C-alpha cells in the first residue's frame, strides 16, 4: 500500500466497458512527510475520495479486488481515505 494525495479527476465518456461507472482520479504519491514522490498517475476510486484528500492506494492486480477482480484494466486503486497519521 502507498500514501497519496488526490490532485484531480478524469472525465472519460469513451472507455473500456468494465470501466463504465468507475471514478478515475489523478493521484500524487507522497512519502511519510507528505513530500511528492514521482509523477502523478491515474487510479480507480473505490472509496469516494475528493481532490485534496490523502488516500491509501494499492497497485498491481490488487487494484482490481475492490471492484470484484476479473478483467478490469487497472493497475492502481484508491482503497481508503486517510483521516490522520500518528507518529
Order of helices and strands: EEEEE
| Uncertain runs | none
What is the CATH level 1 assignment of one domain? Mainly Beta
Strand line-up in the sheet with most strands: 1-2-3-5-4
SSE diagram, text form:
Elements (H helix, E strand, L loop, with lengths): L1 E9 L12 E7 L11 E5 L8 E6 L16 E6 L6
Parallel strand pairs: 3-5
Antiparallel strand pairs: 1-2, 1-4, 2-3, 4-5
Short description:
With 87 residues, the chain is mainly beta. It has strands at 2-10, 23-29, 41-45, 54-59, 76-81.
Could you characterize the architecture of this molecule?
With 87 residues, the protein is mostly beta strands. The chain has a domain of 52 residues: OB fold (Dihydrolipoamide Acetyltransferase, E2P), CATH 2.40.50.220. It is 0% helix and 38% strand. The chain is built from no helices and five strands. Strands 1-2-3-5-4 form a five-stranded mixed beta barrel.
What features would you highlight for this structure?
single chain; 87 residues; mainly beta; OB fold (Dihydrolipoamide Acetyltransferase, E2P); five-stranded mixed β-barrel; globular
Amino acid at each position: 500500500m502507498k500514501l497519496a494525495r488526490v490532485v484531480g479527476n478524469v472525465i472519460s465518456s469513451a472507455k473500456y466497458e468494465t470501466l463504465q461507472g468507475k471514478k478515475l482520479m489523478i493521484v500524487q504519491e507522497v512519502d511519510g512527510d507528505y513530500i511528492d514522490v514521482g509523477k502523478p498517475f491515474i487510479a480507480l476510486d473505490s472509496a469516494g475520495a475528493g481532490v485534496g484528500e490523502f488516500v491509501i492506494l494499492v497497485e498491481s492486480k490488487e487494484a482490481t479486488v475492490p471492484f470484484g477482480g476479473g478483467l478490469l484494466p487497472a493497475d492502481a486503486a484508491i482503497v481508503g481515505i486517510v483521516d490522520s497519521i500518528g507518529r
